[in-house]
Known about the structure:
- The chain has 13 helices and 12 strands.
- By secondary structure, it is α/β, with parallel strands linked by helices.
- Strands 2-1-3-4-5-11 form a 6-stranded parallel sheet, sandwiched between helices. A 6-stranded mixed sheet has the order 7-6-8-9-10-12, sandwiched between helices.
- Helix 1 packs across helix 3 (about 30-45).
- The two termini are about 45 Å apart.
Amino acid sequence: MRVSLKDVAAHAGVSIKTVSNVVNNYRHITPAMRERVQRSIDALGYRPNLTARHLRQGRTGIIALALPELGNPYFAELAAAVIDAAAEHDHIVLLDHTGGRRDQEVLVSQGFRARVIDGLILSPIELEAEDLRDRAEPVPLVLLGERHYDLPYDHIAIDNVAAARAAVGHLVGLGRREVAFIGARRGRSEPAQLRVRGWREELTGAGLPADDGLVAATDGWGHADGAEAMTRLLDSGRRPDAVFAYNDLMAIGAMRVLHARGLRVPEDVAVVGFDDVVEGRFGAVSLTSVSPDKEAIGRLAVESVLARLAGEAPEPRSVRADFRLVERESTLGRAAPADPS
């Protein structure tokens, strides 16, 4: 038998309105009253009808999350963070896959699911500012990632230049003097450009070479791309003593090639990745990586959508999420902390 608000109210000896205020987290309920009602909710096993609640507010209770690569562990972990954050606010997440294609990103951003969602969180790769400038869709849009559009939409990202500088600075601090970058994208890619910029600035500031011969461009950002880039770099005659990869997948691919060539990590070549995905923590050599605060990114994205819906955010905001460099065996050797996290 389904337990109703009326049943909870009778059990707690309070009005239905009081129970409703507790269930909806009304801020002016006293702690004693909240505890009293919560005891009855727990005792009776009451579960709120979230669908009815959202419909009464003119909403669906659904937030869409559009990502470019579902097979990339970083985006899988980011999706989990968004889903967890949405659940805390009684929302569910509808996942869309754009493949990083401009036509799909335009389709998603222009609201083809507008009737079934309350808001959209989009991580674009190829979308241009002109695609969003005349967007008439009223559904709130929050942008993730490093591309900056200078448009009135909330934007959440980490500081990629600073993160790249932290990675390269770590390598320089370990005495590495010829640091390569693999993953510069052929064609436009703002994230790659920003990470190359941080790589270049840190090396130049340390008085070390940051020439184009140490940069390996790729068409993609997977394991095979990292392996191919590392192979091409070594075949060119350059033998860097350190590598900073665009992401962890490329770093893992690069380490495979280094191993095949008889080069030891980190004794001969130290390697740093980016994203801190779980896979990088459990290889034969655990991977040093820049770790974006994915939980914070997910939480900030969901909160931005809900603030827009509630009319609590009159001005668009650009928010920087934190990051940290997690040092592991690929730069420190076996002296690295035993904890793989």
